[in-house]
Amino acid sequence: MRNWCLPLLLAAGQVALLWSGPFGTPGGPALLCVAAAVVLETIGASRRRTAPVRALACTLGALAVGGPAWPDGYLGLGPLVALYSVAVRCPVPVTLRAVAAAVGVEWVLAAVQEHRGPALVAETALALGGYLLCAGLGEARRQWLAGRLTAARRLAGAEHARRLAADQERRRLARELHDVSAHHLTSVVVTVDAARRLQDGRPDLAAEALAFAERTGAETLTALQRLVGLLRDTDSPDHRPMSGRIEELVAGFGRLGRPVTARVPGDLAGPSAEAIHGIVREALTNALRHAPGAAARVQVTRAAGLLRLTVENAPPRTAPQGTGRLGGGRGVAGMRERAAAAGGELTAGPTPEGGWRVSATLPDGAEPRRPDGPGRRRDVLREQRLADPALVSVAMILPLSFVLALTEDWSAAARRATLPALLVVCGLLVLHAVPLLWRRRAPWPVLLAVLATAWAGPAAVAAWHLPSSTAQFLPAGALVETLAVYAVAAYGRGPGRTWPAPVAAALGTAGAMTVASWADRSVGGEPTSAGGAVLLAFLLSVLLAPVFTAVWGAGLVVRRRRLRALAFDEFAFASSMWQADRAAEAERRRLAATLRDAVLEHTRALVGAARRGDLAEGAGTARAALAAMREMLHGLGDGGETGARLAPSPAVGDLEVLCRALRRGGRDVRLRGLPEAGRDLPPSVQVSVYRIVEAALGAGDPGPARVSLRRWRGTLRITVTGVRLAVAGPVAERLRVQAAAGEGRIVCEPAGTLRVVLPAGAVPAPVQEVSP
């Protein structure tokens, strides 16, 4: 009905005009042509949403048929509606070509009807103004819809991030905890074991190992408490350059008894530098674990905007003893995750000499990011401001068309006599409309400039003694003041402070009209006095004030509606991000409790044993802490649900449970079509239906929603309304994949309506269903 309502209304108006006969009744062949044109225009305009260019072609064809058949009575409004749809749904070049085609058809029809001279120019100018106005309004609507779609995608992304916040926080903490266990606890185990083996021949190593265990255990406690929020660290953050921190890290491994060389640029910064720090720490820890005593080399080079990291160690001098079970099996995977998170890639593997090499390529975060070029910025602004030049063109064309239409009946001698005055008046009308080009950026200065140029007409009449026959065309530019007042209300700062705009426009326009008419001491061709001119100014102000006030009020309404939509977007986005923070915080608290029970107690025992000088107990507690950490990391890698079992696949009947749960949460959700539509559906189709409706309703829209199911000709039709966030972004992509897996079709309308058609027969199951 949305597609057919307006075309049928236009057709009804055309039939009513034909039935009432104010312009006469066309003959038999002409009547058939008019009827065919009405049918063609109605059918073409009904497809303006799905195929706007074809709709415009059909309506222009109908105009070419019906216009010559009945010049006085055929309305031909279909091309205006179709051109608006073209501007809404097509890019700017297509819209400009469509305007040119429509104006060309109008010019041909006007020329065929034997219009010549000013009449032909006036009719073509009026057509150009009307088509430009429709194109400008359509372009403004297209930009608004594009902004709404961008906001919907942003909200959908925020909602997607909210749903994944807990999992991402768990993965981040798992990576950080693995770094802590790998670097700190593994170093303690290796050092203490080496000291125990060599304490008979090197008793001094025991004291060094105990001091190292105490220091490293304290660092581990601090790091763990910082990660999970158990303690608030009041120290200032580490502002040292990342290059110095990497060199300090390498020097720390060198103190463990292995030769390590490093070549690192001195200005590493950004996420890539942090990734390099983590990769170097992990790679050297692996070398310490699997290649004791082997030399290692760390090198970071910069070339072509990239950072190339190489960490290589020689073959082990002796076989590793007692370290085969120290690792958690996540070292290389964690390094790859770090590199990928920074936008790079990593490879790891053995060298021909028997050692091990880790190579990573990362973007250079120290180089400043280049901003977008000025050409692209100008193109974006030009595209966004197409509506303003179109509106200015209309404000120029309509008064000029009015002038041409009124001078059509003048004699050739009168036209030649008044040609200079007419050119002056036309120039003033064009100058009067030019400030509207900046109506969005500076609405108040534009209004003042418009009122100032309006007084240029009376000044020209008084200075050059323009005749009354040409001065009477100056009030035709009053449309410009109307547009300026609307701009102040819609785009001016502080809507409560824009009320002087209609008052100033009414007084200024009335004064300019009165002075222009009274400049030759006559008003309407009759002599008048100064008192009469003041009375005329008062009457014009009274008549114009309601018009400007209504336009000002319309601008405020549009402004309020736009700001409410933007405020809703910001609130929804902030709400999603707040919920994501709460989910991440809840996950951190859960992990904090697990860490307190699993790791921190063992780490505190390690520090205590090191302070007491008990090397054997220190080695045992270090291994216990490392084992607890590894077990916890495996649990995090499994998503924290190691005992999840397969659950039965959802059915269409479960949609009632889903809607009741949403209603308990405060959202108005209505479901229609059950149980008739869901009877005898294959399990795979029921799974697809449930997942599609669940994803659409779970996109994050807070408003009411309606779900309708209907069986028709072997298909199941699903209609979900009120889900603006589900028709764009990741949610829409997931719905398309789900519909394609069910061999169905899906249509996402920008207004927030989702239409899905699925075959009612058996189709392959899209995914294996597991417990949430």
UniProtKB/TrEMBL annotation:
Q: What reaction(s) does this enzyme catalyze? A: ATP + protein L-histidine = ADP + protein N-phospho-L-histidine
Record keywords: ATP-binding, Kinase, Membrane, Nucleotide-binding, Phosphoprotein, Transferase, Transmembrane, Transmembrane helix, Two-component regulatory system
Comp. bias regions, Basic and acidic residues = 366-379
Does the keyword Nucleotide-binding belong to this entry?
Answer: yes
Q: Return the Gene3D superfamilies for the record.
A: 1.20.5.1930, Histidine kinase-like ATPase, C-terminal domain (3.30.565.10)
- A Pfam short name: HisKA_3
MF annotations from Gene Ontology: phosphorelay sensor kinase activity; protein dimerization activity
| Stretches the record annotates as Disordered | 345-379
- Record-annotated membrane-spanning stretches: 28-46, 386-407, 419-438, 445-466, 472-492, 499-519, 531-558
Its EC number is 2.7.13.3
The Gene Ontology CC terms held by the record are: membrane
Signal transduction histidine kinase subgroup 3 dimerisation and phosphoacceptor domain residues are 169-235
Superkingdom of the organism of origin: Bacteria
Q: Where is the DUF7134 domain?
A: 387-562
Histidine kinase/HSP90-like ATPase domain location is 274-364
**UniProt protein name:** histidine kinase
Q: Which organism is it from?
A: Streptomyces capoamus
Task: List the taxonomic lineage.
Answer: Bacteria, Bacillati, Actinomycetota, Actinomycetes, Kitasatosporales
